[in-house]
Structure formats: structure tokens, C-alpha cells
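Thread title: Can someone regenerate the structure for this chain?

I was given the following input by a collaborator and told the matching C-alpha cells would be attached. They weren't. Posting the sequence so someone can regenerate them.
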Amino acid sequence: MRILITNDDGARAPGIKLLEEIARAMTDDVWIVAPEFDQSGVSHAISLHEPLRVHREGEKRYFVKGTPADCVILGVEHLLDAKPDLVLAGVNRGGNMADSIAYSGTVGAAMTALTVGVPAIALSQYFQGVDVKWECARAYAKPLIERLLEVKWPQSVVPNINFPHRDPGDIAGVTLCHPGHGFIDGVNVVERVDVRGLSYHWLQFRRSAEEVDDPACDISLLREGHITITPLRPDRHGEWNWSDMRAQFGDVLTVAPMPDLG
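Best answer:
Regenerated them for you:
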């Protein structure tokens, strides 16, 4: 099996080193195509308006001055001599759950893999406080990946796996669940002044898991010690009944054109 690895924390991050260790325990055909620098929060973005610089750092190892999605596209369509059988994205430092999934470069890389015809899995290590319990992902990632492949997980769906902030022997189980809502409470905008007297700004999410009251969602289950898997689709279709939606809103949305304002 050929595995392509990427992430959004940067090519030298501890999580991607762990994921390479996990992948090499599954196969000797492992390729790494990862962002040269931290690309957290870029979601599915690709670089359409600037060139991509690629640095070969060794056999089957490339660092890209671009996004995680750029890395997947370059790897699958250009750098590898044949398509990979699987793309693994992560292991992200911090959970990718609830509202933050939309901004995740880790998830974005996995979603991009699906668009170029390769099955993918996103993996993240949730943590609380300062220390990251990488041992949890190290213990469970390989058997969980192998199990997903064994049960023939739908190739049109990305398993978004989050490992809890627990020691490996203290896991409550593996749970398939939906993303929570209300995790992001807003965005802080911090304005500063550079050495030339010009202003610049930093953006920072305000997050609060305490506001999430859904016991069956990913955040709640992670806090209780579960490994969570949220099935994600790149098409972003709503999970409602389309017949009911058309019956309720179809006529209401019928409008007449505006008169000529000239």
C-alpha cells in the first residue's frame, strides 16, 4: 500500500513525525508532501495566484511553500510516480471538531484528496492545558486506520478522527458521532504597530467548550475520553429532507424582478 502524508502544522511538527512512524508500521511505501511552515486555519485553500516552491528534503519527502491542499494536489498529480492508495492528514496538534472543522487545514487536505480520487483520513490529537498526550494517537491510530480500511469505509466520506486527552489505557471507546455547535464564540482582532509605524492585525478564535450542551457531539464525547470519528463529505450537502425543504420554502422564494431603476 502506498501512503501519502501531509498536515497543516508544518513539515517539522511532532504530529507528522508521529504519523510517519504510524504509516511506516503499515507499509514501506510512504511519501511525505507537507507545508514548509504552519498552515493552520487555511481549510481547503489552494494557491491559484502565486507559484508553489517545492523543496526535496530526501527520498519520497517534499516540503512545499503552500497549503495542505496544495501539498495533496502536488503529491497526487505531480510528485508521486503513481497515485497513492491512501492519504493521511495529521496528526494535528489540537482537536479538529465542531465549528472549527470548517477552518481546519488537516481536514481540508483530506477533503482535497477525495476530489482527486484518493481515500483519506484526518487525524487530530485533542489536548487540554499545555501538554499533548501523543501516546493516545500513537497507540490507537494504526489499528483504527486498518479497521477503517478493513470494513470498506465509503470512499466518498472522510473519517475525521480525534483522539482524547487521555492516556492509552484510559480510553472510553471509539464513537461515531456528529460535530458539535457553539464551540467558536467569536474572533479576537488584535491590532499592533510595526517598526515603521504601520498597523497590522492578528486574528484569534475565542473557543469555549463549556457552551456546548449536546452530549452526543464530538466535543462532549472527547471530554469524556472517547475517540471520536465524525464522517465528513466534501459536497457539504445538508442532511435535511429535500422534499420537505422544497414544500416549505419553494413558493416563498418565488420573487418578481425589480423595476428598471434607470
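The mean pLDDT is 92.
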